[in-house]
Records
---
Amino acid sequence: MRRILKNLVALVALAMLVIAGVLVYVYGVLPRQQPAPDFRVEVTPELLERGDYLVNHVLLCNDCHSERDWTLYSGPAKPPLGAGRPCLVKESKAVGINFGTPGFPGRLCIRNITPDVETGIGAWTDGEILRAMREGISRDGEALFPIMPWFMYQEMSDEDAAAVIAYLRAQPPVRSFRPDRQLDFPLNIIYRFYPRTVDMPVRAPPRSDTVAYGRYLGEIARCEFCHTARVRGRVDPLPDRLYSGGVPFTMGTRTQYSMNLTPHPTGLGNWTKEMFIARFRVHTEPFPVTEEQNSEMDWVAFSGMTDADLGAIWDYLATLPPLESKLLDRAD
Ligand code: HEC
Ligand code: HEC
């Protein structure tokens, strides 16, 4: 009897030790990170222009970091741009931004990225902004919840990141406080495992290599993200389903699926490069629409992409293995 009791005590002690070990790992070691790099952006007019192009026509940061006007085609971001949007909470109806089912397990606020010192990123260093964008680490060393698509920005070149930072800093500061994230168990533990560090320098492929450059653009513009299936709970698109579409987006009462962009007949098989580029020129201004006619893809913002950039994306897509489209049940 005594021995059993002794063993039991030992077992409980061991279990407590293991739990303590896991807690120390999750809260003491995770998220994986390195100090924010000593990265200083030298602002030039060319850099600001590049940042304007990237933020407003390629990366579309404000499509998440602002409220959207869904009475207009492709839901343009509403001013004040970059000031954040109402938090996602349990009662949220259409979560949008591709987080599957309605309602969020906790509270997640898409934050103010204007240069306001108190409520935005005005007091952050360039390196801290860079680390948040590419490595998913907030200023205080906490993990950023991966609705922030830092995992799609990991390959963003130092040069392009500098342009984005220069542009963000040049915008008018808006005072708009968004509370910190508050995640329910087990999400509050899981999300700490996601962040990954990035080694510098990061360079973009040369533009003359249109296939490689197109792959790069498809990644940072999140074409790949919206047009590729993922396993639930994973952030990375599935490599063997790359660009085969079928990802559901719920808009009000309607579900819309992203298109297959591989060269399969159910995808872009019957399209030409000219048709592909022309598709982006159809709607260059927002106009009033019903929910039925609307699109989750921000065609109006993307319509500002250059022919060269869209052409590079096409050149890359044309090299993909043709896959048949499968409509998926859920987005995450
Ligand atoms: C798909 C939606 C989405 C897009 C696109 C997006 N973000 Fe975010 N971003 C988020 C969310 C959600 C958070 C908050 C994450 C959290 O609090 O855990 C966030 C947080 C941040 C933060 C940290 C702010 C803070 O106070 O901790 C920065 C900086 C940031 N984003 C910059 C950008 C930039 C720059 C871009 C464009 C290159 C961008 N984001 C694009 C969703 C997005
Ligand atoms: C926020 C998610 C999202 C992003 C980002 C996104 N798409 Fe889409 N895309 C969709 C959805 C949803 C549809 C289906 C609805 C529609 O056709 O508007 C679609 C449709 C398309 C179509 C088919 C249009 C047609 O006429 O049938 C093409 C081509 C396309 N996307 C290309 C791209 C490219 C290239 C990018 C990157 C520059 C991109 N998408 C980024 C969600 C997205």
Note: The mean pLDDT is 92.
---
Amino acid sequence: MTIQSFRLIAMTAILALALPAVATAGDAAAGKVVFDTNCMTCHGMTGKGDGPLSAALDPKPRDLSTGEFKFDTDGDGTAGSDADLKNVIVQGAMAFGGSALMAPWPALAEADVANLIAYIRSLKQ
Ligand code: HEC
């Protein structure tokens, strides 16, 4: 086998391993960066719903540290699945009968949304 074909096989194997991981599991540390930039003002530094803007808001931003969620966006009988969190983040809570204060974030990259979800899961106490 030539070195070139060995490299090709090795790279293909690495890609095959790496791609599904990118598509499914988010990176909580990367999610924290996106969260601190976009979500912290309402949801707070540790996700308890106590950010600087929260006092003025009704309803209050969700306390993300409880691990309990409200919206069952895909109607599968379970609120707060990964699909539900993704739908609420990308489409906003109002699309599912909730508050316009939880605005849609359609411009977030898919990886950012996956990373945010991983971070939100890590906030559960
Ligand atoms: C302007 C304030 C504000 C910002 C900014 C904000 N949220 Fe929210 N969020 C809310 C409020 C208020 C609710 C509760 C909505 C309701 O119950 O109708 C909420 C609810 C949620 C929920 C709970 C959904 C459920 O099913 O219970 C999640 C998850 C969430 N926000 C994630 C985020 C993420 C991620 C970001 C940043 C990309 C973000 N929020 C930015 C105010 C905000």
Note: The mean pLDDT is 90.
